[in-house]
Write a structure and sequence with these properties.
Elements lengths: L1 H30 L1 E6 L7 E4 L5 E5 L2 E5 L5 E6 L8 E3 L6 E5 L4 E5 L10 E2 L8 E6 L4 E6 L4 E6 L4 E6 L9 E4 L5 E5 L3 E5 L5 E5 L7 E3 L3 E6 L2 E6 L4 E6 L5 E7 L2 E6 L4 E7 L1
Antiparallel strand pairs: 1-24, 2-3, 3-4, 4-5, 6-7, 7-8, 8-9, 10-11, 11-12, 12-13, 14-15, 15-16, 16-17, 18-19, 19-20, 20-21, 22-23, 23-24
């Protein structure tokens, strides 16, 4: 009889704890919600985000700028220059577009209006540039894929440094400016190469992926199936985060927002709300 009372007491305690646990789950799921917004009429080959959370979408020769909430702000296109190969929005007041086939750089202000005439890399003697980026220090970085040089120029196209990249089978597909005036280059077969403010090689992080990667001053992240793989190269820790939707080819983070580019070209903003 005494054992039965103890068993009933224990079961009642377990039932109370279970009800409390379920209540906690209900409260948490009610407290943290995710709002989703599709950017209307947006169709993109790739996307970028500036330090203020503004979203840029690129579709061939067309560039659009949206607010962090997905409102269309400005647009730009110049079909005479062909397809936009990359854009750099590290400095939103001086956005740089790179047209690889035309060998052109175009600088735009925050309203996506040209600041100056297009700059011809071919006329400057740079005939085999495959990558270009623009730093917070008002310097242009170029990568010569044939001669294997990393070049640093000022805004007036005066050459500052020319650094050989003597790495075996080095074929970078993306160049990313970082906050400390440093630079990252992604080679899908080798990993992420980090360079300091003087374009001197610092270290290699052997993350092998063909997916578009993003690099910050601490993190490297990219989509992997329905997850985002995140690696902190300062603490050498890694984690994954489940994505709220499938078919993602590019993911960007800004505060409580995740901006996703899907395989069908649509762009979605997911916001965590309390």
């Amino acid at each position: 009889m005494e054992n039965r009372k103890k068993l009933l007491k224990r079961n009642n305690l377990f039932a109370k704890l279970l009800r409390f646990f379920l209540l906690c789950i209900f409260c948490l799921t009610s407290y943290f919600t995710m709002a989703q917004t599709q950017i209307p009429n947006a169709s993109a080959d790739f996307i970028k985000i500036d330090p203020y959370g503004n979203i840029y979408t690129v579709k061939k020769a067309q560039l659009y700028k949206y607010s962090p909430q997905g409102k269309l702000l400005f647009s730009y296109s110049d079909h005479t220059l062909g397809v936009i190969s990359s854009i750099d929005v590290f400095n939103p007041m001086k956005v740089m577009l790179f047209y690889q086939d035309a060998g052109m750089l175009v600088f735009l202000n925050e309203q996506l209006a040209p600041i100056s005439d297009p700059i011809s890399l071919f006329d400057a003697g740079y005939l085999t540039i495959s990558l270009a980026s623009y730093s917070a220090a008002n310097q242009i970085h170029l990568y010569d894929d044939v001669n294997k040089y990393l070049l640093t120029l000022d805004f007036f196209m005066r050459e500052i440094t020319r650094t050989p990249t003597n790495f075996p089978s080095f074929n970078p597909v993306k160049m990313i400016e970082l906050e400390e005036k440093s630079l990252a280059m992604h080679d899908p077969e080798s990993g992420v190469f980090l360079f300091d403010a003087f374009s001197t090689f610092n270290k290699l992080i052997p993350i092998i992926t063909n997916q578009p990667i993003e690099v910050t001053s601490e993190l490297i992240y990219y989509t992997d199936n329905n997850e985002v793989a995140i690696y902190n190269y300062k603490t050498m820790s890694a984690k994954t985060q489940q994505l709220p939707v499938s078919g993602v080819i590019q993911a960007l983070f800004y505060r409580n927002n995740i901006i996703l580019l899907l395989q069908n070209g649509t762009v979605w903003i997911y916001e965590f709300r309390k």
